[in-house]
């Protein structure tokens, strides 16, 4: 069936606007194109993820008003911040599995529509408990990050997948900074119309809620799971087999590289989530700034995503062309470690100007590390791509929860002290990257053993047993393996394999 389809594809004229590889994944990334299905999927994924970020972090820039209205204590605010990122821990893992089984389009749109009511209900929160609950359920939508990265890894080939993942994730994360500007502006406009401040902040939440709802509808109408079509249609036609949940989970959970990336991602993306929750209030309280001014400064942290995370993905692809997978790992290690150093310094300085400069430097390196992480993730597993994405993405939320529990809950530490301690955690939790090793490409400190004859095919086909291979179920993994020989680096001669 698959061989016949392949032959038919060769006899037909090209049906994609972008050049593609043997899996029909795009080998070029054209940012300003909206060509279906590759670039359309890109724009739908980042816009919908952006909408979820705006909704999840719509509350922090208005906290000085909300806390007065609901009589929130410092502990209440800390708990709500933790709640906003803790729900997505399990949601992200579940999202990865859902993507493997049902495709990123349906998985993403369903979650966005399910969580949108929580954003609407924020407008009627009347107590610390109800405020915590709406933030908790709104935060589930952050799991759309997993579907975003899965979608990009399904649409773009190895030489550009880091760039695609970086730009989609970075522009989506941009919502964390944009909401710092959007919500105070919307709040101000509603006040000008005539609403009192304790009513204005409630009305303001209808804007991100509506945006989130519309983005889900767009994904459902215009999106497509894979270059060749949606999961359901391809499974019905026999062009894609329906995999077993138990085997998808097994091959993902037993791959130690996924767990290491989950840990290290907890201290780049997890730190970013933490900063989104605390940074506006930090500048407002420490430097006695106006709410709008603190929001603008805080926004610059998240807005750096417009260049930083995409740059991380692009750099990962660039170093891979010369140094292969080892170059991706080294760059991730160095960039994330430097981010930890800047974080430590941010908590030490006492002037507004120096704090802003260090915050921007920290944001650039922290978010670039996020892009670099997902330059590695697509190569960990072919069969359990969604699970590995979910594990890594969930690790980001676990890092955020642990960090906020340790350093930003209650009054145990001042916020500046907590920021410095967070920087120490970043450096410590980056060290395990040294342990990531691919038998076909090597790791940070050594390449493949001279006695090791493992190839890309050996690595990715090990996820399939002999009976599955007899049925031809391993064919997509074989194509993927052939397209990953670029990860050997520039100086390694690649040869065609049958």
TrEMBL record:
CDD domains: MFS_NRT2_like
Compartment list: Endomembrane system
Keyword flag Cell inner membrane: no
Protein's membrane topology: Multi-pass membrane protein
Keywords per UniProt: Membrane, Nitrate assimilation, Transmembrane, Transmembrane helix
Gene3D superfamilies listed in its UniProt record: MFS general substrate transporter like domains
Principal location listed in the UniProt entry: membrane
Stated name of the protein: MFS_1 domain-containing protein
GO terms classed as biological process: nitrate assimilation
PROSITE patterns: MFS (PS50850)
Protein family (similarity comment): Belongs to the major facilitator superfamily. Nitrate/nitrite porter (TC 2.A.1.8) family.
Keyword DNA repair attributed: no
Entry's Gene Ontology molecular function annotations: nitrate transmembrane transporter activity
Regions crossing the membrane: 46-65, 106-125, 132-151, 171-193, 200-222, 329-350, 356-380, 387-407, 419-438
Gene Ontology terms: cellular component: endomembrane system; membrane
Domain Major facilitator superfamily (MFS) profile: 41-442
Any Pfam family matching the protein: MFS_1
Source organism: Cephalotus follicularis (Albany pitcher plant)
């Amino acid at each position: 069936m698959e061989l016949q389809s392949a032959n038919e594809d060769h006899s037909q004229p090209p049906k994609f606007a972008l050049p593609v590889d043997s899996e029909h994944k795009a080998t070029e990334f054209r940012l300003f194109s909206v060509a279906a299905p590759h670039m359309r999927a890109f724009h739908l994924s980042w816009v919908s993820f952006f909408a979820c970020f705006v909704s999840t972090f719509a509350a922090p820039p208005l906290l000085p008003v909300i806390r007065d209205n609901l009589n929130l204590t410092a502990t209440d605010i800390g708990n709500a911040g933790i709640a906003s990122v803790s729900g997505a821990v399990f949601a992200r893992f579940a999202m990865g599995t859902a993507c493997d089984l049902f495709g990123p389009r349906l998985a993403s749109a369903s979650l966005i529509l399910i969580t949108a009511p929580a954003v609407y209900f924020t407008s009627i929160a009347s107590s610390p408990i109800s405020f915590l609950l709406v933030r908790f359920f709104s935060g589930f939508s952050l799991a759309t990050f997993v579907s975003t990265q899965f979608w990009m890894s399904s649409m773009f080939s190895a030489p550009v997948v880091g760039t695609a993942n970086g730009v989609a994730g970075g522009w989506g994360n941009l919502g964390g900074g944009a909401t710092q500007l959007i919500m105070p502006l919307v709040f101000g406009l509603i006040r000008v119309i005539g609403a009192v401040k304790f009513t204005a902040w409630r009305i303001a939440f209808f804007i991100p809620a509506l945006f989130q709802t519309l983005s889900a509808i767009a994904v459902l109408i215009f999106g497509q799971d894979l270059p060749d079509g949606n999961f359901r249609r391809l499974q019905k036609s026999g062009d894609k087999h329906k995999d077993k949940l138990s085997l998808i989970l097994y091959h993902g959970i037993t791959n130690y590289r996924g767990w290491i990336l989950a840990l290290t991602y907890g201290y780049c993306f997890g730190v970013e989530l933490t900063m989104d929750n605390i940074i506006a209030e930090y500048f407002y309280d420490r430097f006695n700034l106006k709410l709008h001014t603190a929001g603008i400064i805080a926004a610059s942290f998240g807005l750096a995503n417009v260049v930083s995370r995409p740059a991380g993905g692009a750099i990962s692809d660039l170093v891979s062309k010369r140094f292969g997978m080892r170059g991706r790992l080294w760059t991730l290690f160095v960039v994330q470690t430097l981010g930890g150093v800047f974080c430590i310094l941010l908590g030490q300085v006492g002037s507004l100007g120096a704090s802003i400069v260090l915050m921007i430097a920290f944001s650039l390196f922290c978010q670039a590390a996020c892009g670099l992480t997902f330059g590695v993730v697509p190569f960990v597993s072919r069969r359990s791509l969604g699970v590995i994405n979910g594990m890594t993405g969930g690790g980001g939320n676990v890092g955020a929860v642990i960090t906020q529990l340790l350093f930003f809950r209650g009054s145990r530490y001042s916020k500046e002290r907590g920021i410095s301690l967070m920087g120490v955690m970043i450096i410590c939790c980056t060290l395990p990257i040294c342990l990531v090793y691919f038998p076909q490409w090597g790791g940070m400190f050594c390449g493949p053993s001279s006695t090791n004859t493992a190839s890309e095919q050996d690595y990715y086909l090990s996820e399939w047993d002999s009976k599955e291979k007899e049925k031809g179920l391993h064919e997509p993994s074989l194509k993927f393996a052939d397209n990953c020989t670029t990860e050997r680096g520039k100086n390694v001669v690649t040869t065609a394999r049958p």
